[in-house]
Amino acid sequence: MGPAEHRAADPAQRARGHPGAGRTGPPGAREDESTTTTSGRGAEAFHKGVQALAQYIQREGGGVPGRAHVEHLPDGTTHRPGVWLANQRQRRDRLDTGQLEALAALGVEWATS
Predict the structure, then answer these.
(1) What is the structure's pLDDT at 28?
(2) 62 phi and psi angles, rounded to 5 deg
(3) Contact 47, 30 (CB under 8 A)
(4) Rounded to a whole number, what is the largest CA-CA distance in the chain?
(5) What is the pLDDT of residue 15?
(6) N or C: which end of the chain has fewer CB within 10 A?
(7) In angstroms, rounded to a whole number, what is the distance separating the alpha carbons of residues 20 and 13?
(8) Is the separation of the CB atoms in 85 and 108 below 8 Å?
């Protein structure tokens, strides 16, 4: 969250580092419905999740990682692909076609329906 967002945030939210600080509207509402995660930080996060899930599937021969599993990526970062996958499933109505196809290519069954 940048400095401008901190100035606009409610002081209590700012103190907690609340990710929705400074937003208006109901919780979970998107500011711009036409925005997808095909560019920017959201796309990078999605790519990291796909990379971590693919690495897990390749090493383990398939399956779904548990929520507590931590995957160590080649760039030195860590990722929790089980948590990420559960979050993608909850948000699947907001995933674009390319993202659903990427998940389906990894064998994620709910991404094909």
Answers:
(1) 46
(2) 125, -170
(3) no
(4) 48
(5) 53
(6) C
(7) 8
(8) yes
List, for the chain, all residue ranges whose pLDDT scores fall below the cut of 50: 5-8, 14, 18, 21-26, 28-37
The domain limits of the chain are: 38-113
Cβ proximity of 22 and 9 under 8 Å: yes
**Structure tokens given for 72:** 């160590």
Q: Which residue has the tokens 């094909």?
A: 112
Which secondary-structure segment (H or E) carries 105? helix 97-105
How far apart, in whole angstroms, are the C-alpha atoms of residue 18 and residue 52?
A: 26
Q: What is the pLDDT of residues 81-104, one digit of tens each?
A: 999 999 999 999 999 999 999 999
pLDDT of amino acid 38 = 59
Residues whose CB falls within 8 Å of the CB of residue 100, separated by 6 or more in sequence, listed in order: 92, 111, 112
Q: How many other CB atoms are there within 10 angstroms of residue 20's CB atom?
A: 14
